[in-house]
């Protein structure tokens, strides 16, 4: 592609690069693997850069997350279809990783993030996705609908069911769901 | 509104995503129905636990650097791109960070020999921290040492060695020119998983100085001087990994033919 003017690169730096944590968070939850997430986010950013000329303002976050989500789905299907969802690759986790895990564990112990993430990781991907977009990214139903490519009614019912599942998993409200 | 219909709408009601008429119907029902009200409490508690407990992940610095490198390489074909200093607002923020680092009362833990020049160590560390901020890691972003090494020509009065260490798990990310101790210095940047390693070098006549190591604010600094070149390595990778990196760096250095400044010969 022809080199974009510097002003475009500058605008991309200002509006899209700062959303990297959001992009990475969605990919981490959808793929449940940090290395996969990094590869996919890099691919998504390159795709975003190539299509940035066609982005006409609006919510940059929803726009970027749509690309990230699509990359997660297609990447998973084409690149590693046989991959087990929560496989743990011993070889890929050296001393550095152990140290990282230990550091993470300390942080996790301080909050109940570990319990929440475990509960979340057990849900089907459609449920994880809507929970991340709503409870972490705080998108509106309309934006979530755009990212997932579904009507708002679907967003509403899917989010309600995902929350119900998590409520039960976390033992909130002793009552049986009717 | 019936109990069944109310239950279906509670989740959206919590998010204030219901049309006003429906929202007020739900509200009226909740006042009069204890069971639905308790259901509502449960959803409210679930949502608040999720929103407080599930926090965003922080993307690794290396990923940020990789993305910038990929975009810049695509932008310029295979030519490395020199970043012009057009991120003016960041300069002011960078200065603030330097002040914060210097004034934070760093503890100085020297292992082995005497700690090499505390003032320089401080500047090197400040440069490392500054480099982790947006758009500051590299002036030339490339994984190819044949792009990075020539880039320093004409910008500095000497040429740093840029060994390729990808196979050992230390991918080259690029390079930049920075200022330490009142002079321009070469910084070659490597990655280690999610961490960044900055390698500083500049000509410094004088006797060789052996490797010394210190840690400050969670970062490890290693220093040595050989054949008239001052070397500093800064990172937050695990110390054994950093030692391995320094050993590889020295090997690669020797293999590729050391480039020494004219003043040292
Ligand atoms: Zn009721």
Question: Your description of this structure?
Answer:
- The complex is a heterodimer of chains A (178) and B (265).
- By secondary structure, chain A is an all-alpha fold.
- Chain A folds into two domains: 80 residues, RNA polymerase sigma factor, region 2, helix turn helix motif (Rna Polymerase Sigma Factor, Chain: A), CATH 1.10.1740; 80 residues, Arc Repressor Mutant, subunit A (Orthogonal Bundle).
- In chain A, helix 4 runs parallel beside helix 8 and helix 8 packs across helix 9.
- The longest helix of chain A has 20 residues.
- The termini of chain A are far apart.
- With 265 residues, chain B is α+β, with helices and mostly antiparallel strands.
- Chain B has three domains: 53 residues, no CATH class; 55 residues; 147 residues, Phosphorylase Kinase, domain 1.
- In chain B, 43% of the residues lie in helices and 21% in strands.
- Chain B has eight helices and eight strands.
- In chain B, strands 1-6-7-8-5-4-3-2 form an eight-stranded antiparallel β-sheet, sandwiched between helices.
- In chain B, strand 4 and strand 5 form a beta hairpin.
- In chain B, helix 1 crosses helix 2, helix 1 packs parallel to helix 3 and helix 5 crosses helix 6.
- Chains A and B meet through helix 1, helix 2, helix 3, helix 5 and helix 6 of A and helix 1, helix 3 and helix 4 of B.
- The complex binds zinc ion (ZN).
Task: Provide key terms for this protein.
heterodimer, A: mainly alpha, Rna Polymerase Sigma Factor, Chain: A, Arc Repressor Mutant, subunit A, 2 domains, 9 helices, B: 265 residues, alpha+beta, elongated, binds zinc ion
